[in-house]
Design a protein that fits this description.
Layout (H helix, E strand, L loop, with lengths): L14 E4 L6 H31 L6 H18 L2 H9 L4 E3 H34 L4 H4 L2 H18 L1 H8 L8 E2 L6 H6 L6 H10 L2 H22 L4 H29 L8 H25 L2 H12 L1
Helix pairs in contact: 1-2, 1-3, 1-12, 1-13, 2-4, 2-12, 4-6, 4-7, 4-10, 4-11, 10-11, 11-12
């Protein structure tokens, strides 16, 4: 395993050193096997939802079209980090090239932004279904649904074009060691040769917005949903309404809960280990759990998956 003492000149390294999860060679192999299993299960779970929606005509509705796109997004999201993490476990140098680091940074945060936008659109869909049930078919048409899906993808990938363009043009000095398993903007900016307050200000403004704006939209949607559900006279009607949005609420809580813990607290050397764990939760474990949450709480999805697996 690489250590600072084994390198005499960091400027000769053609990239950055991702420390990942330090440990013995045996522990690295065990971690590699563990995350390989998690990665395969994530691909299988989200892939099953995509196939179920694609092949079951009953699921060709806006809610499930959004869910299928969200599952595809989760596959891309986990793929932006896990394959490199697995290679890092087995690597003696732990080096990632400059271009590889910048690409990982761009795709990881672009896909993360797109995920926030998708969660907001899915909350809007649930709001229409519960608060405007009679107008839902005329408002949430296939055309509108497709436009919303395209908007989520485009906005997600446009948002970080400026930050990645800026950071890829900067020069880096010092150890080039990133105490993380992915290329995070905080450690990258700390390694720049020249500190530019304006660039740090741009990052501090642009980075939280894809989290905050969709989060406020989601909370507003569910406040209106809650108000509408409380007006339902029967207990069974209330349960049915809550079950309609229960899976989405669970996914929002998992993702935003861990992200807010990560980016809502100050960064320090003593918190590096905790930040890795929290990042691991929302970037690797959440995509693994999402298919389980949606399939367990949705009868139509369970039937479609049973039909798919049965065939």
């Amino acid at each position: 395993m690489i250590t600072i003492n084994t390198i005499s000149n960091f400027s000769t390294i053609p990239g950055f050193i991702l420390l990942g999860f330090p440990g013995s060679r045996q522990s690295q192999i065990l971690l590699c096997e563990l995350f390989s299993v998690i990665y395969i299960l994530t691909l299988m779970g989200n892939g099953s939802i995509i196939c179920a929606v694609r092949w079951d005509q009953r699921l060709h509705t806006p809610m499930y079209i959004l869910l299928a796109n969200f599952s595809f997004l989760e596959v891309c999201y986990v793929t932006s980090t896990v394959p490199n993490m697995l290679a890092n476990f087995l690597s003696d140098t732990k080096v990632i090239s400059f271009s590889g680091c910048f690409l990982q940074f761009y795709f990881f945060f672009s896909l993360g932004s797109a995920e926030c936008f998708f969660l907001a659109i899915m909350a809007f869909d649930r709001y229409l279904a519960i608060c405007r049930p009679l107008h839902y078919p005329t408002i949430m048409t296939r055309h509108l649904c497709n436009n919303l899906v395209i908007s989520c993808w485009v906005l997600g990938f446009l948002w970080f074009l400026v930050p990645i363009s800026i950071i890829s043009q900067m020069t880096f000095c010092g150890s080039r060691i990133i105490d993380h398993f992915l290329c995070d903007p905080g450690p990258l900016l700390a390694l720049t040769c020249k500190k530019v307050p304006m660039i740090e200000l741009v990052f501090s403004i642009l980075s939280p917005l894809p989290l905050i704006i969709p989060f406020l939209f989601i909370m507003g949607s569910y406040v209106l949903v809650l108000a509408a559900v409380l007006k339902v006279p029967s207990a069974s009607g209330k349960r049915k309404a809550f079950s309609t949005c229960g899976s989405h609420l669970a996914v929002v809580s998992l993702f935003y809960g861990s992200v807010l813990v990560m980016y809502g607290s100050p960064t320090s050397e003593h918190e590096a280990g905790m930040q890795k764990i929290v990042t691991l939760f929302y970037s690797v474990l959440t995509p693994l759990l999402n298919p389980v949450i949606y399939s367990l709480r949705n009868k139509d999805m369970k039937k479609a998956l049973q039909k798919l697996l049965g065939n």
